[in-house]
Each structure stands twice: as structure tokens, then as C-alpha cells.
Amino acid sequence: MLTSTQELIDSTYEKSLEFSKTNPYPSHSQRVSTLKELKKLILKNDDLLKEALLKDLGKTDYEAYVSEIMFIIKEIDISLKYLKKWMKPRRVKTPLLFLPASSKRAPIPLGLVLIIGPWNYPFNLLAAPLIGSIAAGNTTIIKSSELAPHMSKVVAKIVHELNSPFVQVIEGGVSETTQLLKKKFDHIFFTGSTRVGQIIMEAASKHLTPCTLELGGKSPTIVWGEQDLEIVASRIIWGKLINCGQTCIAPDYIIVQDSLKAKLIEKLKKKITDFYSSTPLESPDYGKIINERNFTRLTAFLNKDEIIFGGETNKEKLKISPTLLESKLDSPIMQSEIFGPILPIITIKELHEIDKIIAHNPDPLTVYLFTRQESLVDYIQQNIKSGSLCVNDTIIQITNSHLPFGGIGNSGTGSYHGTHSFDNFSHFKSVIKRKQMLDLTLRYPPYKNKLKPTLKLLKWFGH
Predict the structure, then answer these.
(1) Fewest beta carbons within 10 Å, which of 154, 364, 378, 425?
(2) pTM over 0.90
(3) pLDDT at residue number 3
(4) Catalytic residue numbers?
């Protein structure tokens, strides 16, 4: 009988490691069977998942289903549809010099994978990479966030019901994560803050373990030029206030052209009221801050800049109303990712100011741009580094499974979703196969007088 968390972690790890070694190349049918059973259990526990999301984050059934459960079902369906294709070796060109021969990239499982999930989308951002890991044929240990305790219990229930040697779960907090990170994995996938991402990477480096880090950053929203500000405001407020602003790709702040500022602010105010009523703290569609620590961190920003709209708080319910601030580049709220329902607005007169403002912080996870000027779209795409660019909308870039999702620099490394998840959790083995004929003697010693003809041959046939 296990008597300690350490023994549980050791036992789980050893069991998973042994299974990954004895089953290094799971068949297509094994992977499909696991994914189908996982889907079945998610649908079976649908009500428990929604209840956990309500308790942990105040999410309505609608938001819980659309932003978490439905997203995962879609990821499973895409994997089931295309897995056979993904598993096939991918042919690449072979230089004429090596003919007759063929070359390919053959995807193989990495082995034993650790996935550490966050608290803000505690189901989506844990299950999505798990689907990719299963599809790629890995054995996986998942660690859910202790800051979303109700979801952590439901995830553990689903994994136990799955009863698959391909997936194990560990619950707990920092101590359990630290113990797991002392183990050697073939890949670590982490979603969370840049600060913790650095800790993950440092621990992984001791075993030379590659990492996928999905982090965060200050994602700017640029509004420039005449356009339909009614639609602009709707899309900004929707993207900002999903999950009460606790979204890694939420619009972090607005950069607006001075001639549009007054009208945009009025539209933003109207949309907040339209969506969440004049008393948003009482709205059933408006969530809460995850814990008191984050509530305190966020409310500290409210007395630093001019409040244009909102600013009401309820500590007992961990709620902060949607708030618009008049801010400057040196404002405290502009020094780090907000991760809450507070939206600073910075005004500019000239386009060149955009570069300086965005460069004030590390490369963002995403950039949102609202404009009708294609030249500006091209400029931002080519000159502003970011994990992604979304033009004339917010958030939707993460919902397209055909696009890779990931950051750059401090906002993350690696990407996933759809086929990109399969690729992320696979090693592509280079394979070249030649026939035993047409053997050129130029490559064999002795090499006297062979350099010039060899270089000439490579020039014409080596690509």
C-alpha cells in the first residue's frame, strides 16, 4: 500500500516508463481506441466538467462548453479523421546524385511525455495536448492545476475510468510538480506563465529533455483608420472578457488612433453594458477571478491610472467589473501581462509609434489588428514579431485546428493543434533507401584528381 505522494509519483512514473519501453510503437487501432474511449468519457462526464468550471472560474454552461468541452471533442474528431494519414511516412525529394533511391520522414513516438496544465482553461489546455500525445503514440503523465481543484478531481476521475496504460494522472501542487520534474521524460509540455516556464526549462535541461512551452505576454490590439467601430468594439470586448480576461491570448491593451479614441471608448462602454448589463458583477454570464491572490494583484492596478469605465470590485465573490483605463507606456499595468478584466487604452497619433509601444515588452503571443488598410496588415505581419496575427477579430486564431498555435521568444516555444499536435509529439526519423547499383567510385579513396569532377557533379546533381 502506498504511503506517500512521493511513492505514488515514483510508482506512476516507473509504470509509465516501463510501458513506453515495452510498447514503443502503438498501432493505429490502439491510438484510435484510446481516443474514442476518451471522447466517450468526456461526453459521459459533461455535467461534471461544466459544474467544475462553474465552481473554479464562474463559467456558464455556454462558455464552459464552447471554450473547453466542444473544443476538445473537435480536436479528438480531427485526430480520428486524419490519424492514418498523419502516421504515414512523408516523402521528400532525393538528389539525382543518389538515384536510384527514395527519401522520407517517418513519424515515430517520442516515448514518455509529461503534460503540465494551467488553471485558466483547466480542461481545454490539458486535454488538447494530451490528444496530440496519444495520437502520436506516446505514453503520457498529465498533471492538472491545483488552482482549479474541482476540475483536477474530474480530470482524475476521467483518466481512472479510461483505465489506459497510455495515460496516467497526478494531482497536487508545486511539490508534486517539482518531484515530477526530477524525472527524465522524452518531452515536457507546459502551459502557464513565463516565470514558471523558465523553471520548467531549467529542470528539463538537466536531462536534455525538449520542451513545448505555451506561455503568455502582452498581446496588443491596434485600432487604426476609419472602420465599423460597432463591430470592432463587440469583438474586442468579447475576446477580452471571455473567462473574465484570464486568457493567455486575450487583448491585453489597446493602441488606438487619436481621432478614433472617443468614439471607440463609447462603443466599448456600450458593449460591456449590452453583454453584461449595467451591473456586470451580478451578471450570470460574467465569471470570477481564480483566487484572492490574483484578485489582489489586479485591484492594485485600479488606483494607478484614470478609470474611464468600471472599476467596481467584490472581494468576497472574487469579482472585478470590466474596466477601461486611460494609460501610458510607463503605467504599472503596462509592465506585465494583465490576465484579468482590465483594459488599458493608449492613444497614438502616428503609425510609427506602434513599433515602440509593442517593443516595450517581450514579443507578444498574438497581435490583434483592426483596420481596412491592407498596407498596414502587411507591415504588421512582416515587421512585428508575435506568435500569431489576427486581423479584424479576436481569439478565433486558436479555434482553427489547421493553424499551429504557439508563441515566440518569451511567449513560448513550439506549437500544437490538429496535425501540429501530432507533429509536436513525434520525432520525424530521416530515412533514405538506395538500390545496390550505379555506384560512383568518385567518393572512394584514393582521392587524387577527384575533387574537381566531384564538385562539378555535386553542382549539377546534388540538389
Answers:
(1) 378
(2) yes
(3) 53
(4) 214, 248
Region of 268 please: left (phi>0), alpha (psi -120 to 50) or beta.
alpha
pLDDT in tens, 410-420: 999 999 999 99
Burial 85-97 (b: 16+ CB within 10 A, else e): ebbeeeeeebeeb
Instruction: Measure the CA–CA gap between 126 and 339, rounded to whole angstroms.
Output: 19
Residues 6 or more apart in contact with residue 389 via CB below 8 angstroms: 366, 367, 369, 380, 381, 397
Q: Where in the chain is the domain with CATH 3.40.309.10?
A: 220-406
Residue 217, classed as helix, strand or coil, is coil
**187-196: string of b/e by CB count within 10 Å (b at 16+)?**
bbbbbbbbeb
Alpha-helical regions (H) of 45-116: 46-57, 61-64, 70-87
Chain-centre distance for alpha carbon 241:
18
pLDDT band of 73, cuts 50, 70, 90: very high
Nearest to 221 by CA among 83, 55, 26, 358: 358
Q: Hey, what CATH topology would domain 220-406 get?
A: Aldehyde Dehydrogenase; Chain A, domain 2 (3.40.309)
Assess contact for 112 and 49: CB atoms under 8 A: no
Residue 178's pLDDT band (cuts 50, 70, 90): very high
pLDDT (tens digit per residue) in 284-321: 999 999 999 999 999 999 988 999 999 999 999 999 99
Which residues make up the CATH 3.40.605.10 domain(s) of the chain? 5-215+414-427
Q: Give the pLDDT confidence of 9-53 residue by residue, as tens digits.
A: 999 999 999 999 999 999 999 999 999 999 999 999 999 999 999
Ramachandran area for residue 74 (φ above 0: left; ψ -120 to 50: alpha; else beta):
alpha
Cell of 115: 503534460
